Fold glycogen phosphorylase.
Amino acid sequence: MKAIRRFTVRPVLPEALQPLSELARNLRWSWHAETRDLFQSVDPECWAASGGDPVRLLGSVSARRLAELAEDRRFLRRLTVVADELRDYVTGDRWYQTQTTEPPAAVAYFSPEFGITAALPQYSGGLGILAGDHLKAASDLGVPLIGVGLLYRHGYFRQSLSRDGWQQEHYPLLDPNELPLVPLQETDGSQARVDLALPGGRRLHARVWQAQVGRVPLLLLDSDVEENDLGERGVTDRLYGGGSEHRLLQEMLLGIGGVRAVRTYCRLTGHAEPEVFHTNEGHAGFLGLERIAELCDEGLDFDAGLEAVRAGTVFTTHTPVPAGIDRFDRELVAQHFGPDAELPRIDVERILGLGMETYSGGDPNVFNMAVMGLRLAQRANGVSLLHGQVSREMFSGLWPGFDADEVPITSVTNGVHAPTWVAPEVFRLGSRQVGAERTEDAMTVGGSDRWDAVAEIPDGDIWELRRSLREQLVLEVRERLAASWRQRGAGTAELGWIDGVLDPDVLTIGFARRVPSYKRLTLMLRDQDRLMELLLHPERPIQIVVAGKAHPADDGGKRLIQELVRFADDPRVRHRIVFLPDYGMAMAQKLYPGCDVWLNNPLRPLEACGTSGMKAALNGCLNLSVLDGWWDEWFRPDFGWAIPTADGTATDDDRRDDLEAAALYDLLEQRVAPRFYERGQGGLPDRWIEMVRQTLTHLGPKVLAGRMVREYVDRLYTPAARAHRALNPDTAGESAGWKARVRGAWHRVKVDHVEASAAPTSTAELGATLMLRVRVDLGELAPDDVEVQAVSGRVDSEDRITDAASVPLKPTSGPDEEGRWVYEGPLALDRTGPFGYTVRILPSHRLLASPAELGLLAVPSEETGEGAGVLMR
């Protein structure tokens, strides 16, 4: 029979066991081994059945067992130690509290998804896992972060396979009362709420739930409340589901409602108000509009409010292609803002202007969330060096006239949270070598460029660890594969072959990620005969574990999965290659440590970062990857392999895939497998072990989320906090007024004449100096409003300056009768080879974060003096 009503019955813990509740509700248990061990000892069978979820464990353990534990003095001592340690962790000073640079009092971090633990399934892929790792690392470092997201009642879908290998989706209903969450409560005990105005006088209401991620509160907004109509209740139904208006409402709730939730949380708890707002991708971009509206209520006009908001906002883009950005119909956005809907105090046209694609090739009829994110943030970054470069090129139209490398988008390469992703066996090996405290510090705070202590671990210990982890993966794969085949309709009698799937002594390759086409799940299948030879090689076989989900609406991705599953179902190779459905955090934590090689073969440069290989590396797994994302930045042949790319313009897609697949097969056959199976005098694969050692020594410190968060604090959060403090109502008004004046007058700014003393002919000697004399017309502007620069460097075959360096010139006379000024300065010829220079005029103000901020510049015309510059060959 089916229940007509569902509710949660909470256990009543004996007084002596009350700290268990505190430990269960703080998600630090998900990366703290001692806390997990404590919960496992409560009831090992219930712990296994709960999937390692303390909240579910405490809801299922018997009252009799709890009574026994309340009298167990040994257990109570352990409980006291772990609870005290959590309190010290939450309240004590950490890295952030030692900073002397006046970092922000608090940072609000917004993301559409957060991957904290499998027990809180609110993530779909890399963006969410990165956000979860960001929160955990911030907690470890003591950064006063407040996370903000949505609570999806169905989370992301669960994946299974049909008999013929087609992906099937299931959406389990999540009860917040059964998750590691507590309601944020008002002082009268009612649940805290936020609401948004909708067209037609309707309201969208949302409750605020709180997850505690170590020291970091994570606020999740939930629209499934009785006051909402059925449509509004479904706004937070599932991650990345629904049509365009559904997505728009999700993003309005995340951004606008999220700011309101932060204000409520700070009011109720006394937490410091954020000085910096960080939006992880464009989904939360509307947060800037809400903050402008707040300032308008305090008396600022829109332009001054925009300046103040921009100063304290950081925007991180994760997509390397325009197609990956949320874009809404302009009229749809207009319907949801203005007098009859949300933010009635702000002119709708000002809102629409923030998201308009005003650049060449843009569509003026769409509202671009990334464009709005960049216009509302004074600081922006990509998530690897290569992705920063790609982002500067992709968004360069917002800064017309500037070279792509001057576009104000920097990069902070992603990192991963080592305590979450490193196998306990790896941690224990490190602890034996240098001590538990030093090992934990190295994995959380980082700070060293090398983990030199790894050099002292004996080869035999490393190899024994690697084989043990591989063996654990083999057992895990067999268990999951059997469950998958039963879901596909197979009977137990058909599954005897699974006991022989994978071999703990065979080179094991992992490939697990989302399945959009650019990640090329099936590149390994381009030549199936050759792959089969590698899998079945009599002396140097390989085995491959594959996992991944396609978006429910992506039939192309589903076909890729089906193609791979059908190959893996072949009785000739099914003991050597497997596809595991329902890839998620729990599976990943077993998969990364157990693989010897982590494979990644995206289309370059479409992988923004690709952090799965980082997690594998922290467990001593070697990377075999296309030079994309983070691997392009940190690859060295000492500890991995680079798959050559065939990305020339003359190569079509099929030809490119054939060439790169052939290169992959060659690497596996000629370099990877021989290195793994080669044995030295002691019977160990000495050269392979050395590569593992190099991976841990050199990559380990780089790939840490602790390193990433420290970079955000030093390079983005602290400068943003300073700018936020500088932009008080008076200076915000000053900045807005100055920008308006400069924009209005810029059409008259021009370079009239350029000349150089002792101008060279076609050659000049290194170390020589030219004296430049430039006449400029500033129109209604004054020298204090601009900077006149000489820009020089090598020139390419089309006379474009590359690797440019700029030096300011100084005004020496003016204005003359026609209002023109003369600027002069020396230009050193400090580089050999083809060389050139030009001059330009840029706006200049003490409150600008970048000379390119306004997207304005003036350069010589072809008729000006020496033209656009001088070239020396």
User: Anything to note?
Assistant: The mean pLDDT is 93.
